[in-house]
Amino acid sequence: MCLAVPGRVLDIGEKDGTRMATVDFGGVQKEVCLEYLPDLQVGEYAIVHVGFALQRLDEESARQTLALFEELGMLQEEFGDPWEQAAAQAGADSPWPFADGPFADGPFPGEATAPQQVQEEGRP
């Protein structure tokens, strides 16, 4: 599910010619595009959907909505780690997917952490 979540603007800047902000969503901070709300200021609240601030919101409404989302677990669903969520839904006791598998300590096949020499069969 993808929610429109209220957040508070912490700072505003420009990135590649686009007005952007760092927005706080009850403890989670994300970068958000402000092109739809060009007059939004630091300290104000806005409804944000898929990285775009869409509508200005008063502080009380924002706080009530964030509290309700938190109570329902929707902020974790929206901003939490998808791998942890999948493991929890699967009932896994350890982090998913390879915590106790052959590559638990890395590297994965084809991923070297340091220069390695590969020996082919029959070659020194």
Count of extended strands = 5
Q: State the share of residues found in helices, binned by percent.
A: 10-25%
Q: Secondary-structure element sequence?
A: EEEEEHHH
- Radius of gyration computed on alpha carbons: 22 Å
General description of the model:
Helix content is 23%, strand content 29%. Mean pLDDT is 76; it is low at 113-118. The protein is of the alpha+beta class and 124 residues long. It has a 5-stranded antiparallel sheet. A hairpin with a 2-residue loop joins strand 4 and strand 5. It has 3 helices and 5 strands. The protein has helices spanning 59-71, 74-79, 82-90; strands at residues 5-15, 18-25, 28-33, 45-49, 52-57. The chain is globular, with a radius of gyration of 22 Å.
Task: Name some characteristics of this structure.
single chain; 124 residues; alpha+beta; 5-stranded antiparallel β-sheet; globular
Topology:
Elements: E1 5-15, E2 18-25, E3 28-33, E4 45-49, E5 52-57, H1 59-71, H2 74-79, H3 82-90
Antiparallel strand pairs: 1-2, 1-4, 2-3, 4-5
Task: Offer a quick outline of the entry.
With 124 residues, the protein is of the alpha+beta class. It has 3 helices and 5 strands. The chain has a 5-stranded antiparallel sheet with strand order 3-2-1-4-5.
